[in-house]
Fold these 2 entries.
Entry 1:
Amino acid sequence: MPEPIITFTDFSFRYKSQTEETLKHIDLTICKGEKILILGPSGCGKSTLGNCINGLIPFSYDGEIKGSCIVAGLETRKANLFKLSSHVGTVQQDSDAQFIGLSVGEDIAFSLENNAVPRNEMLELVDRAAETVDMEGHLKDVPYDLSGGQKQKVALGGVLHNDVQILLFDEPLAALDPQMGMTAVDLIDRIHREQDKTVIIIEHRLEDVLFRHVDRIILINDGTIALDTTPDELLRSDVLKEMGIREPLYISALKNAGADLSLLKDLENAEALDISPVKNLIAEHFHKNEPSLEKLESTGEVLVEVKDVSFDYGGDYSLDDMNFTIREGERISVIGKNGAGKSTMAKLLTGIIRPKKGEITFKGQNILEMSIREIGRLIGYVMQNPNQMIAKNIIKEEVELAPRLNGFSKEETDKNVEEALRMCDLYPMRNWPISVLSYGQKKRVTIASILCLKPDILIVDEPTAGQDYRHYTEIMRFLEDLNRDYGITILFITHDMHLAIEYTDRSIVFSDGNILADDYVYSVLSDKETIKKANLKETSLVTLAEKAGIDPEKFIHAFIEEERRQRTDGK
């Protein structure tokens, strides 16, 4: 029998600030060399379980422990953080909380310096780690100035050379573009195989993690272990939907066609999957719903025009001669690799920074003539990192700050705040301190604070980062309702191809400061050349369509229409 390296025995934990236990009677054994995915909805206790493994509980977060947690032979509550860190390396969900160095190179080198690695050897290891995570050109940059995805790469690079037995990744894909997400999953898998590490991944993006095999999936719900199983068995069941966790796209498409998943082997791997037992069924289902393809048409009043806009941060242009139009009522996904200029464009649209060349107009008026506050009433911006937006200590105080600063009456402020809190599933927690919230919960607070202003255009930067599928679906359906019922235009800056497919009609693809494509989402995500150039990931719907002998563009279009019909019907 494999040697256990982590053992929880009747383990429970309650945070000092809470009355109920977050983890309840956990019995779990993880053996040396295993690769484990910990899955579950937000607030279920996934990250708390991870913090028990790496020693942040009890040494950084106070609370009451019952039962036993043994990591690498150490009873965690009797050890110390230094001893545990020599066995467990962690990449945290919130990259900012992990940075130590003043530059990217210093941060990647931190553990090497602690271990007194000779300088010549250290420089070589840092260069190798930076190249592995595609950050070799940023070694002198300040970590806090990087994009969210770039920060995640630096954090990952910092643990590559740690001589530890256990590697713990808390949502390592949260801010990565699809291609870099695949690279990260492949890198984690390679480290697991070549260095015989025990790897634990805490992640919402199930399909992306299953790009490479995992041994077991531990499903956590309400602080308990709901299921401990293999990926194939989990995908064959209906547990994911019952728990509010998103299925891989190809699994949803197979189920929509009425396929019997028990007939299929290697279900966790879309590439290796043999669909011959259900191929005819998929084709028949598609032809019943086969859509026609259309050219992108411009309808609705023009709200924003971006004309020949260029911008730089003091060097080469980050954005160069950008041109596009945003119309009333549109739902647009802005996609592309990390550092392509998506977040920079959002800051330009909201007046946080101003173009070096060209102009941006709102209903014909140049926004250079407006203050940031005036623009903010028209174009709301929910930033990627919630920690950069939050200014108050209590949830309700944070959400009501924007309408108060913008001169809303007390009655209107109270009404808008309660409505936004309820829509974002935060009303029962309205008097909680923000410090006890998870990253995903903080994200919902920032969305609520912007919705209070009732803007004409809402820009949401990475809305799914840190969100489980249930909360993500609630917010996205709410935003969908705003778009449909009130005509609010919404731009989603995202790496999440599921979001683009499910909730947007048009995609603008950024690549190296230029617009690579601007078309219907199903056309963009079936174009292999665009996908390659923009560091996107070919969706599993393309893989399934090709296996079934169906045109991928039409197949994705049909899938989008079917999913939207199901949402409308309340399925």
Entry 2:
Amino acid sequence: MTMHAYRTHHCGQLRAADAGQTVRLSGWVHRRRDHGGLVFLDLRDHYGITQCVVEPDSPAFALADSARSEWVLTVTGPVVPRPAETVNANLPTGAIEVRITEVQIQSRAEDLPVQVFGDIEYPEETRLKYRFIDLRRDKLHRNIMLRSQVIASLRRRMIEQGFTEFQTPILTASSPEGARDFLVPARNHPGKFYALPQAPQQFKQLLMVAGFDRYFQIAPCFRDEDARADRSPGEFYQLDFEMSFVTQDDVFAAIEPVLAGTFAEFAGGKSVTAAPFPRITYADAMLKYGSDKPDLRNPIVIADITAEFADESVEFKAFKGVIAGGGVVRAIPAPGAASRPRKFFDDMNEWARAEFKAAGLGYVILEEEGGVLSGKGPIAKFIPAPILARIASKANAKAGDAVFFAANKALDAAKLAGAARTRIGRELGLIEEGAFKFCWVVDFPMYEWSEEDKKIDFSHNPFSMPNFDHEAFLKLDKDDRETILDITAFQYDIVCNGIELSSGAIRNHKPEIMIKAFEIAGYGQDVVEAKFGGMLNAFRYGAPPHGGSAPGVDRIVMLLAGEENLREVTLFPMNQRAEDVMMGAPSDPTPKQLRELHIRIVPPEKG
């Protein structure tokens, strides 16, 4: 029987039971070792590594001996058991080696700009320019395979939940998502442009109006925004889904098993929050965690102690002034911090000043004398014992702990307290390792007051259904600021380990409510009709109540891979400046292309 031209087995396949067979393998030279005449070549392909050896008297020796790192070889020879002392238990093929009797060089490699073997760190630009070599490296290769497996798992679980996959258009019109669009010139319509979708938002809602009931898609999304570690410049993927005739509870019940199941499948022994996920209101999240993306691995809970510092028995004027100006005081407990050196507290203060331009973080160190709680530190003398006991009780703190304070306007105090909570949790080693902790953040405010524009504006998604009696909503006077700012929306975020995976909502499917919602924010019906006429018009022809969400695929994989940067789970990412340094994008168009598109480039003015 004729042997295959390139391989009878892949490089991760052979075991002790295969000893005696003559096999053919093809792959890259992962590592070359010269042991006193014997030359060892570790041959690597997508599936694994097999040790191959060639002896000086083999007719294949000269050619095999000439091979260098990342050359592509085809080797033929018998499978031989390794001597017991040389068995490599860390390698699936570690019980055997292949004695090379024939070798064929398929491809030579020039000097490598990125070494595949070893753990050398290379500059990001080098890694991205030579990504095709970088992707051969074990960790990155495994991350990309994990990404594929996670997407397959998500897809399978969505189908099991009764969802159907559809593909929505890539060339479309500008959307109201909030970021900048990528524009594509329309050759047959001079001066007009398509936009790449920031999300399939309007299309998926139109699918519900069209009667498809449960849609999903592993959707590419395009946003012209700056890069961050948890945000890719240019493009990203999300598990986009929408459902008809559903309440918020129905949406949660549909997606929780998909996420919990996928995470459990790939968690590698880490614990995963079981469905149903905890639900935290936006107001509670901002108070207790100082963030609408709470990391529940951190046990620290922030408390409101405004009333305690407002008490007439407290003489600390700095906080009293904040409270008089409409501000708040938050307490951030630091369990066990009483034993920390003074530098720990000084560093926290300096950090608050440098990062948040705050006056600092006040603090008290809690002690116990004769069964009575007392405080130590720069502001402890201003706090009478009964008030200190109330603060400790609210902050769930005891002797041996410390309590830090953030005082400012509510939002600024929340941001400082939330960041302090994270920093303290890390410094004191309180963050639970080996866990994926999910929660929903619900009841986002529909509107907020814009101090800059002196007007009511949308707080988050303008297309969410207000959680307010519809008849009463239509009768609202836009000057009734207090009532309007109390309205919450059927809007929700999925958060895992402090990372927002997605925002979602029960959609506003009633044209009259949508028009009223925009009117409250100062947008006339003519503006709404002009911007969102397509969707509004569709709603006028019978729209079901519907809602959905879109967890970020890249972020899901980043969490499961234990990475902190999306580029480590993306095949061919751009750099921080949104450039593809490997393919040379963006590139200059030719004069012919510009003529066809009726476009003239006007360079930015210098200076």
